[in-house]
Specification:
7-stranded antiparallel β-sheet; 18 helices; alpha+beta; 24 strands
Length: about 600
């Protein structure tokens, strides 16, 4: 940034531009349009919405520094895959309570030549894991699966990020890791949202010395918004990744320190588990909705299957007419489809390498039969899982074979949808001394006992029980939409099971209601996950609509926000429209051709 040129970032409140601030222009960028919040370019300012337009490339993430890292790579000649990797590594520094090196991810990508890639970087259970590892005195102990050494799965994010860089990128791994390392070493100003998470998790972070040293003050109080968070150990790990790639993580100092700490703490994750980790390439899941091809992520993501189910279950309704004439009926139909989909999720979904996950879950005849259960104006009294065709025969994976979402696209035709996670806020709350890496608590995404809810209230059965090397079921739903083979939209979200409902609603609004991506993301959302049997609605939903839903038999629960989403849309006339979540701080940016 030494050239001293200036460009403008605009804070987007609602859908209109307000205060503009001058920022140093990235060298060689050409024209850039960006939308961020906070007068200093961090998230320390007020909450904001972000929408950016351009024809060269676009990116949307939850943090301005991550979006800027992606922009820097694009400006230096990288493509959308390079930008996504740079953003993901930066998020491990500035958004470490949601995702990072100690977690996992699903990456759905469309390459410039048109082929689709699904990279499974989901965490795996250690080799010593077993179905009863969280049972104490005959009962499941969720504390063990959510906090501390036993909660940690083998991280997959580093391997997946690097694989995306080598498979679809242009050799920008070292530059991406260097940017993240510099911010970790120099520090960044804590935004309000991060400080609030520290306050909420303070008691658990105190339990682990390295976590306490990084995230809390000497007196044990949480660091406050505006304070500079320096992560020196994390900077060293990122420098090692710059020099040696994933080997530095899976076979180097990080693995040695983690192995030793686990032995001291009674954990089961070992250096051998780390050295044995491999990403998997999955067959992308393709379905159709409103004349578009919907490309989703297959199991162990439940997102791809159940987004597809929800869309298919409602496709027989005239959704646009319902929204115009009887909006409560629109929300009712969508909510009922969610109930049906999540009932199937609890019964059938798991890692296809270990569980029989029927392809019949997306069979057209099966979904037509399930859709017939949905009645206008009346809630289905009792929802159970269905009986999809091909149970035990036609299965996923038997052919050749708290969370953050980011997305990037370029005019060469590279599109990336990446959802990364360490599971709940600050994951297991563990930082192994000397590493600076917040480790996941992904073991809680297994069904620790049949019917026992996890941290998100989701239940499961033996299909999702812990087992050595198994990948826990996930709600992550990275999605890419094609029209006649051309990519026109990508979206995804963060927020546990609400990822599925938020992603589906963005697709419904864009493809069935004709809304722009920024309108679709800003619109009020609902969520139903079968258990508990309540329809969750955002408080922005009109009271009259809520009352009408209650009259149809829905038990209504209100919340301030359902999920955190990012999306990019495209059309031939205006190019890309990148949109960051308006409910929380986020940042979108787009580039014009020079």
């Amino acid at each position: 940034m030494a050239n001293g040129k200036q460009w403008t970032r605009r804070s987007m409140i609602g859908c209109s531009a307000s205060t503009a601030v001058a920022w140093p222009m990235l060298s060689g960028t050409g024209a850039i349009a960006a939308a961020v919040g906070g007068a200093d370019g961090t998230n320390s300012g007020p909450q904001f919405r972000a929408v950016a337009r351009g024809k060269r490339a676009a990116i949307a993430t939850v943090h301005p520094l991550a979006t800027e890292a992606g922009l820097k790579i694009l400006a230096d000649g990288g493509n959308a895959a390079d930008a996504a990797v740079a953003a993901a590594l930066m998020l491990s520094v500035v958004d470490g309570h949601n995702s990072g090196l100690g977690g996992g991810c699903f990456i759905l990508a469309r390459a410039a030549d048109g082929h689709m890639v699904a990279i499974d970087g989901r965490e795996t259970a250690p080799a010593a894991a077993h179905a009863e590892m969280f049972i104490r005195n005959g009962k499941a102990d969720a504390n063990l699966s959510q906090t501390g050494a036993l909660a940690i799965g083998v991280p997959g994010a580093v391997a997946a990020y690097h694989r995306l860089s080598t498979e679809l990128g242009t050799g920008r791994w070292a530059a991406a890791a260097q940017m993240a390392a510099e911010v970790a070493a120099d520090g960044f100003a804590l935004p309000e949202s991060y400080a609030a998470r520290l306050k909420g998790e303070r008691s658990d972070l105190q339990k682990f010395p390295a976590s306490r040293e990084i995230f809390l003050r000497e007196n044990g109080s949480p660091r406050l918004a505006g304070e500079t968070l320096v992560q020196s150990d994390l900077a060293k790990i990122l420098e090692e990744l710059k020099q040696s790639g994933p080997d530095a993580f899976y076979r180097g100092r990080f693995a040695e320190l983690t192995d030793a700490w686990m032995k001291q703490q009674g954990g089961i994750l070992t250096a051998d588990d780390l050295a044995s980790y491999r990403v998997r390439f999955r067959e992308p899941l393709e379905t159709k909705f409103q004349g578009h091809q919907i490309i989703g992520f297959p199991p162990p993501s439940s997102g791809g299957v159940h987004v597809a189910q929800i869309l298919s279950l409602i496709d027989r309704f005239d959704l646009q007419q319902l929204m115009q004439q009887e909006p409560a009926a629109f929300y009712h139909v969508v909510g009922e489809a969610m109930r049906l989909a999540f009932a199937d999720r609890a019964a059938f979904l798991g890692d296809p390498g270990f569980a029989d996950v029927p392809r019949g879950l997306i069979d057209a005849d099966y979904l037509a039969q399930r859709s017939s259960l949905i009645q206008l104006g009346k809630r289905i009294p009792l929802v159970r899982e269905g009986a999809p065709p091909g149970i035990g025969i036609d299965l996923f994976g038997r052919r050749p074979r708290h969370t953050t979402h980011l997305t990037a696209a370029d005019d060469d035709g590279n599109w990336i949808a990446m959802t990364s996670t360490i599971n709940t806020t600050f994951g297991s709350k563990v930082v192994v001394p000397g590493t600076g890496v917040v480790l996941n608590n992904q073991m809680d995404d297994f069904a620790i006992a049949p019917g026992v809810p996890n941290a998100f209230g989701l239940v499961g059965n033996a299909a999702n029980a812990p087992a050595p090397g198994k990948r826990p079921l996930s709600s992550m739903s990275p999605t890419i939409v094609l029209k006649d083979g051309v990519p026109v939209l990508t979206c995804g979200a963060a927020g546990g099971p609400r990822i599925i409902s938020a992603t589906a609603q963005i697709l419904i609004r864009c493809l069935a209601l004709g809304e722009s991506v920024d309108q679709a993301i800003a619109a009020p959302r609902i969520h139903h996950q079968w258990v508990p049997d309540s329809l969750v609605v955002e408080r922005e939903l009109q009271p009259l609509i809520v009352a009408q839903l209650e009259s149809m038999g829905h038990d209504i629960q209100r919340t301030s926000a359902i999920a955190t989403a990012q999306a990019i849309g495209w059309n031939a006339e205006s190019g890309f429209v990148a949109t960051a979540e308006p409910r929380l701080p986020g940042a979108a940016a787009a580039m014009e051709n020079e």
